Amino acid sequence: LELVESGGDLVQPGGSLRLSCEAAGFVLSWYAIAWFRQAPGKEREVLACMSATRSGESTHHSDSVQGRFTISRDNANDIFYLQMNSLKPEDTAVYSCAARVTQEPCAEMGGADYDFWGQGTQVIVSA
Questions:
Q1: What distance in Å separates the CA atoms of residue 20 and residue 97, rounded to the nearest whole number?
Q2: Relative to the CA of 68, which of 12, 34, 48, 116 has its CA 20 to 30 Å away?
Q3: Dist. CA 50–CA 66, nearest whole Å
Q4: Phi, psi angles (nearest 5°) of residue 35
C-alpha cells in the first residue's frame, strides 16, 4: 500500500496548482483522505479532509485554505486531489497526502490518526 504524490511546483502568487495522490494497492472508497503541509520551522498543518465514501464523503477545510483549496477524490482510479487556487507566498511548504480506513468523520482527525502517508511534494509560491 503506497501513496504517491505529484504536482508540486514553483508558482507565482495568485496562481493555481493541483496536487495528486495516487493510492496504489488501495480501495480508496474505504478510506478517509487528507492533505497536510509543513512549512520550515512550523508544525504540520491539516488543510483538508474527506470522509470515506460509505460515510458520505463529507469534507472539511481549514480556515487558512477555506475558499481557496478543494479536496476531491476519484475512487474509480484510486486517486485524490488538492486543487489550490489564489496561492500566496505563505502557502509555501511541503504538502503530504494521507489516508486511513475508517467510517469516522474526518473533521476531528489529526495527523496521528492517519495510517498511510505520501512522500511529500514541494510547493513554492514566489514571484
A1: 9
A2: 116
A3: 14
A4: -125, 135
